[in-house]
Each structure stands twice: as structure tokens, then as C-alpha cells.
Specification:
Layout: H1 4-20, E1 24-30, E2 44-50, H2 56-71, E3 73-81, E4 84-91, E5 96-103, E6 114-119, H3 130-148, H4 152-174, H5 189-192, H6 203-209, H7 215-227, H8 231-239, H9 256-260, H10 268-276
Length: 282
């Protein structure tokens, strides 16, 4: 396990390397160190601007080789956001080191946690929150379609995605870190209280919380549950009054039993269950 002193020494070494690298036009601390809020578990977050005339891939490769050769990196992964690539290293000491590489014109703050060490901020820094807004509505669309298809686990995943991205937007508004939920516990209670209802608990609670779905919606969800091989959901929807032989308008002439047994679903037990209850279909 790394110590805070080891973390500080490594960060200082990386900043010194950045100052000595002619291809690096600017560097900044990000994360908790930029706010003097590190604790025992904090990692290293460093952002670098890469000169327009430099080979971007070569710069990343050289820094990566140094992390493995000199600092005991065991593995790394890349997270991309806009023009920037965040290369995340795991060291043998369990210290995480995040180095963001961005073209010099895109180098700059995208969150409140940004302290410029040297160089200049670029001219094309994206507005904070733009990507969060897009992902929030994208998750919302898929939450709706997942529920309609009877895919409750996928729906839970999508609902959580909506909630997490809207909370991240609240972090941006209140000037606290928005990445990976780091600032969510700093939001006012009056803000987070409104999100309690967005915690997905069960299908029963979801249905009880809103207006009762119409028979056509239940029928369509039942067909989709069968199409996706979701027997437990199909049983639940049948108990809620679904028509076992209803065919949604987009399904052509394919019955729920036929959809359940089509190529790719491989759900013979579900088909047998449907036939036992009088479902039509070959």
C-alpha cells in the first residue's frame, strides 16, 4: 500500500518530467489535489497539453513506457472524453495514476477541480456538462424501451444511468467534482432528496408509483418479455392481465410463443410454459 509521501514524490517527479518535455505545452493538477483535499486514499490526477506539432501517440507511448519502467505500473486502461485521452495506471503499490493527454487547444478545465501548474489553457475547451446532458437523455430513452420490452435488469441499469448523470449535472451547477460521483456527497440535502424516488427497487413499486399502464402497454411488454426469453417477467405480466396471444403492431403476425422460440432466444422451457397456458403459434 502506498503512503501519502510516496504519492507526493511521484507526483512531483511527473510534474518535473512534464516541465522538461518540450512536447508538453501545459500541465495541471486535477482531482482532490487541485483543491488541497487529498486524503489517505487519493490517487494522482495530472492533465497535460500536447503541442500541436507533436506526435500525440508518441507522447503517450513515451510517458506510458516511463510509468512501467520507472514507476512500477502493472496495467493501464484508456478513458476517452472529447479530444482528451485519460490513461489510468495501476501501480504495484495500488496507487492509481491518471494522466490526461489533450491537444494544446483542448487543454483546460472541464470541472472545478483544475489547477494550472504551467502553460496556457486552450481555445477549444468543451463546456462543462455538455456530454452529461447528452448521456442523460440517452439513458432515459433506453430506460423507457427497456421497461416496454420487459427487460427489468436493463431498465434498472438505464434508470441508474439517468439518475447518476443528472446528479453529475447538479455537481457541475454547485461547483463540486462531477466525475465518478466524487462530489455527490457534497451536494445540499435539498438537491439529493429529490432523487430518492429514482432508486429502482422493484417492478411492483415502479408500477405503483405512476399511472397504471393500459392493457395495450401490458400486452406489448408481455410480448417483449417473451421475445427476450424473460420467463419471470412474462409470468408477472400475465398475472397483471396481459393477453397471451396479443401481437403488437410492430411484430407482424408473430405471436409471443413464436417470438420466444425464434432463432437466437433458445427458450424452449418458456415456449412450453406458454403452450401450457393456451398460447397460439406454431
Amino acid at each position: 500500500m502506498f503512503t501519502p509521501q510516496e504519492r507526493t514524490r511521484l507526483r512531483d517527479a511527473l510534474v518535473a518530467r512534464a516541465r522538461a518535455d518540450e512536447r508538453v505545452t501545459g500541465a495541471a493538477l486535477t482531482g482532490s489535489a487541485s483543491r488541497d483535499a487529498e486524503d489517505r486514499w487519493s490517487d494522482i490526477d495530472l492533465a497535460l497539453g500536447v503541442a500541436a506539432g507533436a506526435d500525440f501517440g508518441r507522447v503517450m507511448a513515451d510517458w506510458t513506457a516511463a510509468m512501467y519502467r520507472q514507476h512500477g505500473a502493472l496495467d493501464h486502461l484508456d478513458v476517452r472524453s472529447g479530444a482528451a485521452t485519460y490513461r489510468v495506471f495501476l501501480l504495484a503499490s495500488t496507487l492509481q495514476v491518471d494522466i490526461a493527454f489533450a491537444p494544446e487547444d483542448d487543454f483546460g478545465p472541464t470541472a472545478p477541480t483544475f489547477r494550472l501548474l504551467f502553460g496556457r489553457v486552450g481555445d477549444r475547451v468543451p463546456a462543462a456538462g455538455a456530454e452529461l446532458i447528452g448521456m442523460a437523455w440517452l439513458y432515459a430513452l433506453h430506460a423507457r424501451s427497456s421497461l416496454a420490452r420487459g427487460r427489468v435488469w436493463q431498465a434498472e441499469y438505464m434508470i441508474s444511468g439517468v439518475r447518476d448523470h443528472v446528479l453529475a449535472l447538479a455537481c457541475v451547477r454547485h461547483g463540486v467534482p462531477a466525475v465518478q460521483g466524487r462530489g455527490m456527497d457534497q451536494l445540499p440535502a435539498a438537491v439529493t432528496a429529490g432523487f430518492t424516488a429514482a432508486l429502482a427497487r422493484s417492478v411492483d413499486e415502479f408500477l405503483a408509483a405512476g399511472p397504471a399502464p393500459g392493457s395495450g402497454e401490458i400486452d406489448a411488454a408481455f410480448w417483449q418479455a417473451c421475445n427476450g426469453g424473460q420467463r419471470r417477467m412474462a409470468e408477472y405480466l400475465l398475472d397483471q392481465g396481459a393477453d397471451i396471444n396479443a401481437i403488437p403492431g410492430y411484430a407482424g403476425q408473430q405471436t409471443a410463443a413464436e417470438a420466444a422460440g425464434s432463432v437466437g432466444t433458445q427458450r424452449q422451457a418458456l415456449v412450453d410454459w406458454l403452450k401450457e397456458r393456451g398460447a397460439a403459434g406454431d
